[in-house]
C-alpha cells in the first residue's frame, strides 16, 4: 500500500490475488462453515440462557477466526472460548502465526500456501517479506472492517421488522426449493436478491476515504480541475456513498430495496489500489447472516446508534441483542 510507483505497485500486487480469488476462497469454504457452525452453537447457548449478546464482540471473534482459518488453516479459538484470548485482538499477539505457518511445510488450501507456492515458483517476484506483509494486512484489515459491517447490518435489520420478515421469507423460499442449506453455500446466497449487504456497506462505509495517491510528473487533470505534480489525492468513499445526486433524497437512509436495481460502490477502492479481500468479505458475511436471520429472532437492546472508529475505519460502538430461537420453522444446525 505504501508503494507510490504505479508500475512497481502492479508488479508487487499481482502476486497477491491468487490467495483471494473466488476459486481459492471456495476451496476454503468448509473452514468458513466450521466457524459459522461454532457461531450458531454459541448463539444457541445465549438463547437458552437468555443472555444479551454484544454482537460487536462476537462478530470480531467470528471474523478473526475466519481470517485465521483461511490464511493459516488455524483458527484463533476466539469463537470457541467466547472471549479475546490473551487480548489478541488488541495487541496482535497472534501475529506469530505468520512465522509458524511459513515453517509448516505441509501443503494446505489456505492463502499462505498460494503465496508460498508463488514464492517457490517465482522467487524473483515474491519473497518472505512480501508474504509476511500480505498475511499481516489480512489480520489488520480483514477482521475489524468486516465485523463493523456485520454489526451495522444486524442493528439495521433488527430495527426493521418488515425487512427482517421479507429477508426471512426469501431465505425460507429458497430452502423450500432445496436451494438453501442449513449452512448456506456461497453459490446459494449469491443468488439471493434481497440479501443485500451492499446497502449496509454504502450507508456505513467502514473506510471513510480511499487510499491516497500522488499526482505524477506533469500534473493531472480531472474534469475541469488541474492538480500539480506531488499533490496527494483521495476519493472520499463516504461522501460519494451519501451523495443525493447519486442516491436520491433518501441517501442517508438504509434502503436495501434500492439494490434490486443496479448501482456501483467503491467501499474497497478501485483500480490497482483496491482491496483484494473484498470477495472474502462478502463471502463470509452473506453466509453467516443468511444462517442467522433464518434461524433466530433478534430483539434489539441497543436503541441508540453510536459511531466510533480507529485509524480510517468507522464502526458502531456496540450492538446488543437478545437472541431467540425461531419457533415457526427454520433449520437450526446442531
Topology as a string of helices (H) and strands (E): HHHEHHHHHHHHHHEEEEHHHEEEE
Structural class: mainly alpha
The oligomerization state is single chain
Terminal CA distance: 42 Å
The Cα radius of gyration reads 21 Å
Within the largest sheet, what's the order of strands? Answer: 1-9-6
Give the fraction of residues assigned to helices: 40-55%
Number of strands: 9
Care to describe what's here?
- With 334 residues, the protein is mainly α.
- The chain is 49% helix and 10% strand.
- The chain is built from 16 helices and nine strands.
- It has helices spanning 6-13, 22-27, 29-48, 55-72, 78-81, 88-91, 96-103, 111-121, 128-142, 144-158, 161-176, 186-189, 198-203, 237-241, 244-247, 278-295, and strands at 52-54, 213-214, 220-222, 225-227, 232-233, 296-300, 307-310, 313-316, 320-325.
- Strand 3 and strand 4 form a beta hairpin.
- It is globular and about 65 Å long.
